[in-house]
Amino acid sequence: MNRSEAERRIEELTAAIRHHEYLYYVKNEPEISDAEFDQLMLELKRLEEQFPDLRRPDSPTQRVGGAPAPEFAKVPHQPPMYSLDNAFSEEDLRDFDRRVREGLGGEPVEYVCELKIDGLSISLRYEDGLFVQGATRGDGQTGEDVTENLRTIGSLPLRVEPAGRPVPPRLIVRGEAYMEKRVLEELNAALAEQGKPLLQNPRNAAAGGLRQKDPRKTRERRLDTFLYQVVDAEELGFTDHWSCLQQLEAWRFKVNPYRQLCRSIDEVLEWVESWRERRFELPYEIDGLVIKVNSLAQQRRLGFTSKFPRWAIAYKFPAEERETTVLGISLDVGRTGVVTPTADLAPVRIAGTTVKRATLHNEDYIREKDIRIGDTVVIRKAGEIIPEVVRVVLEKRPADAVPWQFPKTCPACGGELVRLEGEAATRCTNSLCPAQQYRAILHFASRDAMNIEGLGEALVQALLDKGLIADAADLYRLHERREELLGLERMGEKSVENLLAAIDATRQNPLHRLIFALGIRHVGERAARLLADHFGSMEAIEKASLDELLAIPGLGPKIAESVQAFFASPRSHQLLAKLRAAGVNMVGERKTGPAEGPLAGMTVVVTGTLSRWGRKEIEELIRQLGGKAAGSVSKKTSFVLAGESPGSKLAKAQELGIPVLTEEEFYNRYVQE
Ligand code: AMP
Ligand code: ZN
């Protein structure tokens, strides 16, 4: 094929692929099979390889062509990306309508109702129809350049063609990047299989996906978009929001089909009502509805408060409540022996999922609410939160229902259950309790502890059931039982090999990981590090007196006593002896005296999502720089490091007048040398 033939064919292929991408990703109505589509892509790729200078900047082959970004550049938003005021009731919505009409001197108003997609907002810039830049919202004033990552999203047009209306030479559109519930489930199923931590909810998963350094990773998240705003629409000749949405659709952006033009607040309320149940059937999550004044001139006249547009509001549905009955109360034994009661419920649909259990926390909780087996209870579930029992419906209590008594013996081992004074928890005191062992081993292997990859719940249970292990130290002798491992369900040569290698690698873990992994009550990662840094070896900790433990700054008496009690127990001795014999590292670098580094003496609180570091990484980094990473803001906080979507800690810092640093400022000041 000669050059000009190639040029023509590339053009044809690009147009065809763009068309089929649109049908597949935006319209959800593919006309050709995946194989046929791949064939077109392959042909285009080959041609581009042969004639590299003919590759167009909007070529569909370039969706994952971008190089990994070492860091995301800042993008100023002009105008800023706004957030929305909230309404929680019909009354709030009527108030909003009243304010709007007053603001407009009593003129008639039309409203556009939309779904509030629970993802993260994005801003896309097109120049002469070509997608040139995409950014996250950031703090609304400045976001991050995630162009290469956005490019991977199939529904996002890499080029906009005239449709009904020409494409403005400079066009900025805004909307939401999100993940479908089904995609989240599939990704989580795969993660669970690999024994990796799960994605918490579609919103976090989407946010995390857009902030990947490598666009190929973003692609794996299979994100999607809905666009809902044309920036500076009035200047571009639009008169109302509704026609902006229609035009976005004509330009082949993905626009949410569920929208409604309403002529009065009553019509709005009707629409709101119609979503109360229907919202759970959507393939993606919404966190409410958005109501916007339709006329752009009216929007302009209403303007903004210091925080929100006066012409729009978000309606949030109340947390859902349902009645169901308590079929029974079952007990779960944790790794420290804490026994947690859980209500087994008659299955009930609530907030889009079927709920069968609700935690009852402890004995007092059950007593205060007087929850009895057979009772009808009101259950509430808000967003991702675990369902909780709001109250008992006393009128429906069966005549024979009796107050619930906490059992005296452990459901797993029959050992005695005790409740220590001043504690809410009830515990199984038998340290050989199999349920505790199971939890203890899971904790030992978990990511923040020894981090044994691939050792998940089912496998630990199987190892215990088959008697291959009795405690965590036995993991290090599993290589002697290769044959039996191969006999386990779903354990082939390869997985046994991987498991043994993963276990083996943890022998070299730093001391603080092992201390944390032991599961000593009250000893979290922070205390484990303090102990490791202070004593420098397991032996020194074992020998430490209570006074010595109490003398460690930052280690409270509760922790000190618990450490003492742990090492005093013969069972702990036995476990440590086995771990030692297995060659597990028991020494660390001893750090005494004041910490050194640019953050020496400082306490830093992190809030929000950072682009360079995960939460664990940044905390580790702060420590490496000589500082302390704290969980909550107090007067002692030196500064707050605020990432994207910061939480209430930011407000707290502002309230206390504590300095707040952006990620960039932090990076430039303390990390970059
Ligand atoms: P909030 O974060 O609660 O203040 O709500 C504002 C956010 O809602 C915006 O930043 C958008 O990310 C998001 N949002 C989702 N869907 C829409 C929509 N249809 N119109 C406007 N904002 C929306
Ligand atoms: Zn027990």
Would you spell out the secondary-structure blueprint of this structure?
Elements: H1 3-26, H2 34-50, E1 74-76, E2 86-87, H3 90-103, E3 111-117, E4 120-127, E5 130-136, E6 142-144, H4 147-151, E7 170-178, H5 181-193, H6 202-210, H7 215-220, E8 224-230, H8 241-250, E9 259-262, H9 265-278, E10 286-293, H10 296-302, E11 312-315, E12 320-333, E13 338-350, E14 353-359, H11 363-369, E15 376-381, E16 388-392, E17 417-418, E18 426-428, H12 434-445, H13 457-465, H14 482-486, H15 493-505, H16 511-517, H17 525-535, H18 538-543, H19 546-550, H20 557-568, H21 570-581, E19 603-607, H22 615-624, E20 628-630, E21 639-642, H23 648-656, E22 660-662, H24 663-671
Helix pairs in contact: 1-2, 12-13, 16-17
The structure holds adenosine monophosphate and zinc ion.
Keywords:
673 residues; alpha+beta; Helix Hairpins; D-amino Acid Aminotransferase, Chain A, domain 1; OB fold (Dihydrolipoamide Acetyltransferase, E2P); 6 domains; 5-stranded mixed β-sheet; 22 strands; globular; binds adenosine monophosphate; binds zinc ion
Can I get a quick summary?
This protein is of the alpha+beta class and 673 residues long. The chain folds into 6 domains: 3-29 and 36-58, Helix hairpin bin (Helix Hairpins); 74-315, 2-Layer Sandwich (D-amino Acid Aminotransferase, Chain A, domain 1); 321-418, Nucleic acid-binding proteins (OB fold (Dihydrolipoamide Acetyltransferase, E2P)), CATH 2.40.50; 434-505, 5' to 3' exonuclease, C-terminal subdomain (DNA polymerase, domain 1, Orthogonal Bundle); 511-581, 5' to 3' exonuclease, C-terminal subdomain (DNA polymerase, domain 1, Orthogonal Bundle); 603-671, 3-Layer(aba) Sandwich (Rossmann fold), CATH 3.40.50.
